[in-house]
Amino acid sequence: MTATEAETSVTAAPRRWDPVVKLTHWTIVGAILANGLITEEGSGAHVWVGYALAATLALRLLWGVIGPPEARFSAFPPSPGRALDHIREIAEGRRSEHASHNPLGALMVYAIWSTLAAIVVTGVLMVAAPDKPRAATDARPVAAATLDREPPEREATGEREETGEREEAGEGREEEGPLAEVHEAAVNLLYVLIVLHIAGVVFETRRSGRRIVLAMLPGRR
């Protein structure tokens, strides 16, 4: 370690996450786990967990404006240039202290927040979307129906079979509109970002020797 690096590590303020940052972080983790592993997609529980996630994300974004210095957006602005400098720093074996997220971590945070926002918005819009009327799609010309009419029992049986086939083969896919596709794509992207985030935390912990996960626990820095 050079003299400059030693001086930086001595004079840099220790990273401390305030209670609101810790609360929002673990609440978001819990909501993702609940809707990803426990609740059924489209169920009432799934929707309410989504609302809780939206409220928690809104609180964290508000805290990024009015919270303590290390929690504000100004402490970790998204900067691809600084992220590239940080990658070069890692390649050269140098280390520097950051009061908040390092430049790569900052990009990851904003990517996760943006993806969560897309998930929340599309989820809310899907819940608010009115049901599509189905009567018009099943209508047939009256004249053709009367000319080619089967006995009541056979007709009823045929209609039930036709309806069941439509529900299994086609109507379920019709409900998958653009909102559902964007929602599902955002969820899959979120899972990829989470894996990369965990890998980054493990790598940075080994590289810097700092217990980054423990810093998010109550009473720890």
Automatic annotation (TrEMBL):
Residues 16-219 form the Cytochrome b561 bacterial/Ni-hydrogenase domain. SUPFAM superfamilies: Transmembrane di-heme cytochromes. Residues 137-178 are annotated as: Disordered. It is found in: Cell membrane. One of its GO terms (biological process) is respiratory electron transport chain. Residues 147-178 have a biased composition (Basic and acidic residues). GO terms for cellular component: plasma membrane. Its main location: membrane. It is a multi-pass membrane protein. The keyword Transmembrane applies. This is Cytochrome b. The keyword NAD does not apply. The chain crosses the membrane at residues 45-63, 104-129, 185-203. GO terms for molecular function: electron transfer activity; heme binding. Keywords: Cell membrane, Membrane, Transmembrane, Transmembrane helix.
